[in-house]
Amino acid sequence: MIVHHIVGASVPRKEGWDKLTGAARYVDDMVLPGMLYGATVRSSVARGRITKITFDPQVDWNEFVLVTAKDIPGKNCIALILDDQPCLAAGKVNHPEEPILLLAHADRHKLRKAVEAVSIEYESLAPVHTMEESEQQSTIIWGADNIFKSYLIEKGDVDAVWKEAAHIVEGEYFTGAQEQLYIENNGIIAAFDAENGVTVWGSLQCPYYVHKALMALCGLPEEKVRVVQMETGGAFGGKEEYPSMIAGHAALLAIKSGRPVKIVYDRMEDMVATTKRHPSRTRHRTAVSKDGTILGGEIEFTIDGGAYATLSSVVLSRGTIHAGGPYYWPSVRIRTKAVATNTPPHGAFRGFGAPQSLFALERHMDRIAQVVGISPVEIRRRNFLKPGQTTTTEQVIREDINLDRLLGRALELSDYAAKKTRFAEENKKGVRRKGIGIAAFLHGAGFTGSGERYLNSQVGVEAGADGNVRVLVSSAEFGQGTNTVLCQIAAEALGLPYESVAIAQPDTTVVPNSGPTVASRTAMIVGKLVQSAAEGIKQTLTKTGLLREDYTSKQFRAACRQYIAARGALKSYARYEAPGDVFWDDEKYRGEAYAAFTWAVYVAEVTVDLTTYGVTVDDFVALQEVGKVLHPVLAEGQITGGVAQAIGFALYEKVIWQNGRMINNQMTNYIMPTSADLPPIRVFFEEHGNVHGAHGAKGIGELPMDGPAPAIVNAVEDATGVRFRSIPLLPEDLFDALRPQSLEQHVPSSARGMA
Predict the structure, then answer these.
(1) Which residue from 57, 168, 427, 543 has the highest number of Cβ atoms inside 10 Å of its Cβ?
(2) What per-residue string of b and e applies to 127-144 under the rule 16 or more CB within 10 Å gives b?
(3) Which residues sit opposite 288 in a β-bridge?
(4) How many structural domains compose the chain?
(5) Claim to verify: residue 470 and residue 501 sit in the same structural domain
(6) CA gap 187, 30 in Å, rounded
(7) Is the torsion defined by CA of 368, 369, 372, 378 positive or negative?
(8) Residue 341: C-alpha distances to residues 88, 126, 141, 241, 415 (Å)
(9) b/e map of 290-312 (b: 16 or more CB within 10 Å)?
């Protein structure tokens, strides 16, 4: 076998040429014979009982296909975890924009007018709009107590640490909702016939999630449901669970009409009706020694789940486990919960709870440094996890990670010390204040705890008679590089040219269930399985005597041809097997939460303009340890894109709620950073390997979302001397905070010591 060393090289993207030339087919490019267009009639109130539905008599309703909850052949739910969310409201609505009925017509323009011609009357019920209202439980809107899920982590003896503490530091921190704002809106086409059942084509992340949901909704066996992922223009978690809803709507219309139905949201509907990042509140109470060593603490982490459970329990789980960050807590008690409100359900978004709890922690670490009287650098250095120590879930750190060295390199790359000194001097004059801030953090790769055991993922690799190889996975490409990286792994394992390996379009009738494309698991978990399956092809050919250990591509092609001619299809499958040293106790919420962590230190440099009260990020250093970089260009792109998205989370992207409804659901008034608003984002990697990942890789897709927001807000405080506890941090927030202060008397924190 000739080793080509494809892994680690920046090979061309598998789907790049088709995207560049316009040959890539997205769902809205697809037209089927006799196809209708579908639309959704939604609730205009946050909570109420439906008392009357009126159809304008000026519309010829005989032209339209109409579906209500009564037309659902199976169970009226979006099957996911708790199955509490109806596909169509039946008698009662629990949030604005909740789907009530569906319409379809061949003419899109008539369809839009028909939606407006449906009038719905309600008996109003008292809504709950905030986490605080939900916690008061004066109005119960879900279950017995408005709580979707709660977790408790206890380590050591927290009650004993307070009397030993030289300082007890408290803080409360908030993060807002964030819209995924993918380029391509949600879209699905569904077709139905009695013999084959339901087929859907869509823009989505998780084909088998949709498959499961359609089986329950349509009352069909698995062989009568087919889900095909089309080219997908971005997702960021926003197409993890929600496509099950829109696929269900299209399928119901297709079943009733007997014709294919396409539903593609416009931007306003997509923003107002679909899931967003969970808003959060975190409370810290930390016991610290005189020298700044953390003795223990209590953390309360609460997220707003919206009206239905969806994925809140698993978002909460990751936020809970990451709440202690990359620090050693001898004793800690972490109480967390996801609560119900009458807003559209919140769901998956890059980072999955970790950006919320890590924002709070990294702001709190700066606060501890101030109380103790040491620098933000030193407080972190004194509390970093070291090999042999345990995380908050008592997972032993077995990786040879040196966070002290990672921090030192990040400070050197950013010229941190020199800038601290220079900014302190420059900030004494003028109306522009400079600041620099840091954040240290970790991110677990793969599903939390026993999640990967539960998924039991499987992948396949198939060789053709021509010697070309096809990777069979349900892992979806939506811009992050899945197709390219998995083909690299297979090519390297087989010693073949990269061009000889392709990836099958995710289609539930063709590919096995390799699990959802989420949780930073694709390169590490699925990639390792692809490597095993590819090696299985090689082993099959060598054991049959058709291939020697050392072979050329030509010899591999000949062996494949001979094997297939004599024995039929040449396929190899690999199924996930949990490592023996990874065990999680779901009941006690303790143990190895993840097979591997990525580690990072980010440094942000900002300018605060005291005339406009705007914040500009001037420079950003992102240093991370990621195991093994499989594709340098794609890896750097993932980090750069994540940092850009997190800058929006920190400084720009504010969802404005009114009676449970997003009212700034346009790109003219929901502001995200453009390329002109972004700094140079300088990306650096360290590679220490990982025995659980393909070629030592870890997951990196979510990591860059975690650290930028606290680093930026830490830098803003460094520039202004004012503590900010919530994001997004907008100019009006700075104006309100800084207006009462006299700038002549203000001493910025950058003048109060450094490492």
Answers:
(1) 427
(2) bbbebebbbeeeeebbee
(3) 167, 294
(4) 3
(5) yes
(6) 11
(7) positive
(8) 19, 11, 7, 19, 45
(9) eebebbbbbbbbbbbbbbbbbbb
Domain end (from 231, 248, 273): 273
Same domain membership, residue 261 and residue 285: no
Boundary (domain end) residue, out of 512, 543, 575: 575
pTM above 0.90, yes or no: yes
Question: One-letter amino acid identity for 642?
Answer: G
Helix (H, G, I), strand (E, B) or coil at 403: helix
Query: What whole-number distance in Å separates Cα of residue 623 and Cα of residue 408?
Result: 11
114: part of which helix (H) or strand (E)?
A: helix 108-116
Tell me the CA distances in angstroms from 471 to 86, 487, 503, 571, one per residue in order. Answer: 36, 7, 5, 10
Given a contact cutoff of 8 angstroms between Cβ atoms, the answer to whether 150 and 317 are in contact is no
Helix (H) / strand (E) containing 606: strand 596-609
Average pLDDT, 10 consecutive residues per value, the chain (755 residues): 78 96 97 98 98 98 98 98 97 98 97 97 98 98 98 98 98 98 98 97 98 98 98 97 98 98 98 98 98 98 98 97 98 98 98 98 98 98 98 96 98 98 94 97 92 94 98 97 98 97 98 94 96 98 96 97 98 93 90 95 97 97 97 98 98 98 97 96 96 94 98 98 97 91 40 31
d(CA 453, CA 693): 16
Please report the sign of the dihedral spanned by the C-alpha atoms of residue 183, residue 186, residue 187, residue 190. Answer: positive
494 and 417 within one domain = no
Q: Taking Cα atoms as reference points, which of 82, 355, 134, 354 lies closest to residue 241?
A: 82
- Check: CB of residue 470 under 8 Å from CB of residue 537: no
Q: Which stretch of DSSP H or E encloses residue 575?
A: strand 570-575
Pairing of strands 261-264, 36-42: parallel
Furthest C-alpha separation in the chain: 87
Tokens of 38: 């579908």
CATH number at residue 458: 3.30.365.10
Q: Is 635 inside a domain boundary?
A: yes
Angle (nearest 5°) at CA 12 between 10 and 15 = 135
pLDDT digits (tens, 9 = 90+) for 251-287: 999 999 999 999 999 999 999 999 999 999 999 999 9
Catalogue the E-assigned strands of 106-249: 118-124, 147-155, 167-175, 187-193, 197-202, 225-229
In 3D, which of 593, 686, 685, 692 has the Cα closest to residue 638?
A: 685
Task: Characterise 475 by phi-psi region: left (phi > 0), alpha (psi -120 to 50), beta (else).
Answer: beta
What is the C-alpha end-to-end distance of the chain, expressed in Å?
53
| 580 belongs to a structural domain | no
Do 481 and 557 fall into the same domain? yes
> What is the sign, positive or negative, of the torsion defined by CA atoms of 234, 238, 241, 245?
negative
Q: In terms of residue numbers, what domain contains 238?
A: 31-125+181-273
Domain assignment of residue 316, yes or no:
yes
Same domain, 601 and 666: yes
- Residues 613, 738: contact at Cβ < 8 Å? yes
Residue 68 near residue 101, CB atoms below 8 Å = yes
- 638 touches 350 (CB < 8 A): no
Name 245's Cβ contacts closer than 8 Å, sequence gap at least 6: 78, 85, 87, 99
Beta bridge partners of 336: 151, 301
Q: How many CB atoms lie within 10 A of CB 432?
A: 15
Helix, strand, or coil here: 419?
A: helix
In sign, the C-alpha dihedral spanning 418, 421, 426, 431 is positive
CB-based contacts of 437, cutoff 8 Å, min separation 6: 366, 376, 603, 604, 606, 710, 711, 712, 713, 714, 715, 716, 717, 718
Judge contact between 177 and 279, C-beta under 8 A: yes
